[in-house]
């Protein structure tokens, strides 16, 4: 989100350094693009030293209010005990990620064979 706020100003004079956005600018940019974001739900899976992510589902803008209001409950009910990554996108652009250890998930070892 910080990156979207930082590059929101388009008409900088040549040679002008882009400053870091303020918290208020980042918050304003979030509320501007959040209603248009879609979400990808991924499960983290570890095999030996390699971590991969398996796509569990996607939600279009406006279809994931239950996920926002009560993420742990939604993820546990929908996907069960897993380590989950939620990626937010604005069109094709990645916005941010949030990670969850759902329903008491503690280790990759306990999901082997599940």
Task: Note down, in words, how this protein is organized.
The chain is built from 4 helices and 4 strands; from the N terminus they run H-H-E-E-H-H-E-E. With 114 residues, it is of the alpha+beta class. The protein folds into 2 domains: 35 residues, no CATH class; 78 residues, no CATH class. A 4-stranded antiparallel β-sheet has the order 2-1-3-4, covered by helices on one side. It is elongated, with a radius of gyration of 18 Å. The mean pLDDT is 84.
- Strands of the widest sheet, in order across it, are 2-1-3-4
Q: What is the residue-mean pLDDT, rounded to a whole number?
A: 84
In terms of structural class, how would the helical and strand content be classed? alpha+beta
Strand content: 25-35%
Which short descriptors sum up this protein?
alpha+beta; 26% helix; 4 helices; 114 residues
Summarize the structure.
The protein is α+β, with helices and mostly antiparallel strands. It contains four helices and four strands. It is 26% helix and 32% strand.
Fold topology:
Layout: H1 2-6, H2 23-33, E1 38-47, E2 50-59, H3 65-69, H4 71-79, E3 83-90, E4 93-101
Antiparallel strand pairs: 1-2, 1-3, 3-4
């Amino acid at each position: 989100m910080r990156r979207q706020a930082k590059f929101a100003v388009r008409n900088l004079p040549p040679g002008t350094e882009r400053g870091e956005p303020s918290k208020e600018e980042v918050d304003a940019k979030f509320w501007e693009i959040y209603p248009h974001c879609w979400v990808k739900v991924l499960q983290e899976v570890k095999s030996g030293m390699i971590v991969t992510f398996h796509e569990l589902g996607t939600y279009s803008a406006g279809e994931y209010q239950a996920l926002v209001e009560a993420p742990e409950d939604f993820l546990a009910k929908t996907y069960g005990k897993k380590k989950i990554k939620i990626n937010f996108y604005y069109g094709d652009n990645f916005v941010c990620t949030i990670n969850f250890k759902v329903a008491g998930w503690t280790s990759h070892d306990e999901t082997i064979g599940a």
